[in-house]
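Troubleshooting entry. The earlier prediction with magnesium ion gave an output that would not parse, so I re-checked the input for stray whitespace and re-submitted. Clean input:
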Amino acid sequence: MEDVGCGSAINFIQSIIDKDRAEGWNDGRVHTRFPPEPNGYLHIGHAKAVILNYGLAVRNNGLFNLRFDDTNPATENEEFVESIIRDVKWLGADWGDRLFFASDYFDQFYDFAVQLIEKGKAYVCDLSQDEMREHRGTLTRPGRESPHRDRPIEENLDLFKRMRAGEFAAGSRTLRAKIDMASANMNLRDPVLYRILHARHHRTGDRWCIYPMYDYAHPLGDALESITHSICTLEYCDHRPLYDWVLDNVDYQLVPGVRGRPKQIEFARLNTNYTVMSKRKLRRLVEEGHVSGWDDPRMPTIAGIRRRGYTPEAIRSFCDQIGVAKSDSVVDLAFLEHCVREDLNRKAPRVMAVLRPLKLTIVNYPEGQTEWLEVENNPEDPAGGSRRVPLARELYVEQDDFREDPPPKFFRLAPGREVRLKGAYIIKCERALKDPSTGAIIELQCTHDPETRSGGPGSDRKVKATIHWVSATHSLPATVRLYDKLFLTADAEAGPEDQDFTANLNPESIEVLNQCRVEPAVAHATAGSRYQFLRQAYFHADPEDSREGHPVFNRIVSLRDDWARAQKARSPDGPGDGTAR
Ligand code: ATP
Ligand code: MG
């Protein structure tokens, strides 16, 4: 990956790293990680964390690890592990041979806990969850100490061993750190380090029935992997003192030859409007059938946007431009789409496809004749080249490029009107044929002016509109899925008190068109290829549903750049950072 993703302006985390390196802290090493919990698919917010962590490692000649934080067997599984690996790779982050699992360290975590007990810094507590909550106090009232807080060390060691051996019921006991029940920071009020869970783990099977808590496992995982900068989102700010307490009080062994210890740094999570980003809500969309799966092209998951047709380059550019902040904000979805459009504008070949076909016959064009017209592939790409597009007597054009009674400013086809067929001739609409029973227009009969072939001597004759078309006989069928926003409201997470967020779903977020016709160059689109359908939008040949000779296209983004327009209207001086106002 190039040097992107950290914010093109040097971000505040890079400034911390610069200072650390100048001071020789951790021997000047930079080692970051991305620590997903495999309890769902990654979303665009996670992409920011991946790209930031990986980008910082690359920029500072450092290392990057992928570590699964798999400490809660109840919600985690292999499907999620595999999807996350695929997604992180697709985003372009490279962890080399450093793929780790917190569960690989369960033995060490256990030994460290024994160490804490031996030092009198952890104890087995018999309070139930409710009692513990009640003892915990509030932000304004200090907590009360557990009656088991001063258990003798020997008894703690024995009970903890028996917890591990499976002698106790789930929820009946915990191991807690002995810190300070009166601390102003609730996280330091004797937090739980281990809980009993009789659940099968996706990697360790039934070996364990006690599992470490995130706040205990995370700093130790970082330390064991000699991470230097443990970058996480703002909600962990209040957990940082506990992160440091664990590292201060456990004698962990670093990788031989490596010195130093990790430090936690928090940044603002990425939020975008018109979508939800909580895994719990995404899971509900999948489980309740509001979408076809985690990879539904309307989902903000990496799997979803990949299938929709977004490119990793566009996502990296997006992350780079929104930068890294210390306070939360909402980024406009239109800005993400703008980044996708910018990337595709350079890369995607232009082709012609008719989504809602209307038959058009050029009555003065010889029957059985075909002309192969040379059309350029991409005016934005000097190396784009050209292709040949067949013209014949019978064509298809877009239904809404014709109006029987054209309103003012409608310059396309109407009785007696002329338009240019893209890359071909000027045609004139002589008459529209109707279905006698329904009155629906079923065919346009036109004539062409043979002197006006594009690129030919008469090609400079001007008409007011150019439309796309395909040959009826040479074109092939395709299915097109037009996607729109998944939610109707910008703040999709919220709703009136009594209303669930699913009430905000857009009932028209997908429209499937089955009668589309595409020019022959596209018909054999390999799954995964992207095009601009002229005058319409960018499309991606769906990798799952496309069949040989019948591609299925997902609309990636429209051609209209709402973000750039709004930006222009706001300030003529150029682009901002995508923040929604
Ligand atoms: P949960 O913890 O509720 O399951 P999560 O989204 O925090 O959900 P994790 O798997 O814990 O999921 O996240 C992995 C990493 O990605 C964490 O370091 C987290 O801080 C970061 N992350 C999660 N959501 C975002 C976001 N919206 N923007 C940036 N980073 C994020
Ligand atoms: Mg989390």
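This one parsed fine. The two ends are 31 Å apart (CA to CA).
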